[in-house]
Amino acid sequence: MKKLAFLLLPFVLFSCSDHFSTSLKSPKGAVQVKVFENTDGHLAYSMNFKGQPVLLESTLGMELRDHGFVGTDLKLVGVDSTGSKKTWRPLWGEDGVIIDDFRSYVFHFQRPADQLLVDVHFKLYEEGIGFRYEFPQQEGLSEVIIDDERSEFQLTGDHQTWWIPADYDSYEYLYQSHKISEIDSSLVDGSLLAATTIMEKHAVNTPLTMKSEDGLYISIHEANLTDYAGMTLRIEEDKRTLTSSLVPSKLNGWKAKVQAPFHTPWRTIQVGEKAGDLVESKLIVNLNEPNQLENTDWIKPGKYIGIWWEMHLQTSAWDYASGKHGATTAKAKKYIDFAARNGFDGVLVEGWNTGWERWIGFPDREGVFDFVTPYPDYDIREVVAYGKQKGVEIIMHHETSAAPRTYEQQLDTAYALMKDLGIHAVKTGYVGPIIPEGEYHHGQWMVNHYRKVLKKAAESEVMVFAHEPIKATGIRRTYPNMMAREGLRGSEFNSPWGYGNPPEHLTIVPFTRMLGGPIDYTPGIFKLDMNEYKEGAYVPTTLAYQLAEYVVVYSPVQMASDLIEHYEGQAAFQFIKDVPTDWDGSVVVDGEIGEYIVMARLEKGGHDWYLGGLTNENARELTIELDFLQAGVTYEAQIYQDAADADFETNQAAYEITQKTVKLGDELTLKMARGGGVAIRFKAL
What we know:
The chain is mostly beta strands. Among the domains are: 2-286, Beta-galactosidase, Chain A, domain 5 (Distorted Sandwich), CATH 2.70.98; 497-558 and 569-685, Alpha-Beta Barrel (TIM Barrel). 13% of the residues lie in helices and 35% in strands. Strands 1, 9, 10, 11, 12, 15, 16, 18, 19, 23 and 24 form an 11-stranded antiparallel beta sheet that branches. Strands 2-3-4-5-6-14-21-20-17 form a 9-stranded antiparallel beta sheet, with no helix packed on it. Strand 32 (583-592) and strand 33 (596-603) form a beta hairpin. The radius of gyration is 25 Å and the shape is globular. The chain starts with a strand and ends with a strand.
């Protein structure tokens, strides 16, 4: 990197009033950014993509408690400019190789009034940008209280959006689709809310995905959320400007407290000409630091089953006192036997430890859970030993009931137990409002808690599947033991008492929530008619749709989440047994947000491709080109698809399996029923 005085930069222009204006470009020029001081003396930027405006004049700045607003009356004292093009190989992921190609610009400012130094860092990629604020080491700046951030994103029009409200505690909402001007949290059905701490009437969570009238697909999010509060977006009165807003600590009266020097997370804008361009972008992970773990031999993608769904069906319970405790030694062994017979890597056991009698609905939940003491009918050491004999790993479960201080007090003993038992995976949970009152799931205090747990897990060689998490922002690159997060309405909402996720849900999620990172969605429900549990209840998808979820909704750790007896005798179960969870390549074959999506992925270290297609409440027939297959290879397409009379409301379980020989360049017609799907293994011959 070279340091350049601004007077020597040919792209820095001046007016007679010393206002500056700088034009930046991505390596190949697809993205252009203008950074300038506007006529009000406010630091601002704008953004174009392939000649089309993406963001109009948008101001930048932060509100610091002891230093006031930082974003006006700043003097540019220098710029660093550099470029880089590298490739790196993730330990696991959607692609075997990732290209990190960007142009970086760091603007160094000083505020003459008090000599405060602040930098603004832009990274330009061909598919978007990231920017962040940086406060270098300097006199008079040590502990900094941040009262808010005011990064603007001024849109070019009244874009169509896919959004969820800015709840401080939960992302578990169905995505709404409205124009920016129509967004209003009162449109969200209150009966479906997992939490009710909506920030304000006209505010949304990220990733926020939009489509402009010019046909551009745009997503605003953040990357590398570390020691900071989560960002939401406030919709201003003009209905065209979005402004960053940080989740507060009501307990402490600030948005964040940091130590200088520090930098904020990256604020990201991804752009594409097709909806699939957003999914294929690697901007979010590229804006995170490289892997910090030295030994990663214990980090292994895979598939698992578990004692879980029966609790949601209410045929078993998490707590021992109910008399129908699910997590017994005998049942765990039964699941281990099934996993061993069918090639599954692990078994999740929920409800194994004491404390479940007082976890939901009790105001004082601190000190309730014990993360090392099993119930009397569960011998954890016997179960783990039995699993090892069968080649099956046990996945630990830590539900905190949103009492993180209790969890932190037991981190050492809980993870020491896992290390002693040789357990390398844990599912964590944070159901309920956070204790202490005044802190939120998405605020800085909990962001730091989640990271503390992740680091402790890494020290103990444990992978994490986080539920009720902070949103994914690409940290999986830095800590590859962060395998998957919930952070959305998962498959559990399809239980008889869960209101149901409509078929369109997973035609939106890949273009919104999945842009942040892998999802622990828990797919694979085969018994879709649930009338025996509750009259009229059913899972609102077809069985072929359930299979396609394994390809469409990415996770390196996928669950076959139904009761194991519901898989017996089902020929379609073969696809779940075959489909990998780690990939060398991923492409969006076709898709429109909220309508349908077709994904294809290449198995890690092999030649087989897998395809998943999902449609919304409308039946659909698509003809696709098999241009992703390898040249010179013949494939047997093993096709799992909806039967002719399948329907997500009236005939969910109807499917058929066919075979067809195909090669690169062939066309294939996909037929999907209402709320249906298609899953294909292209087996290299």
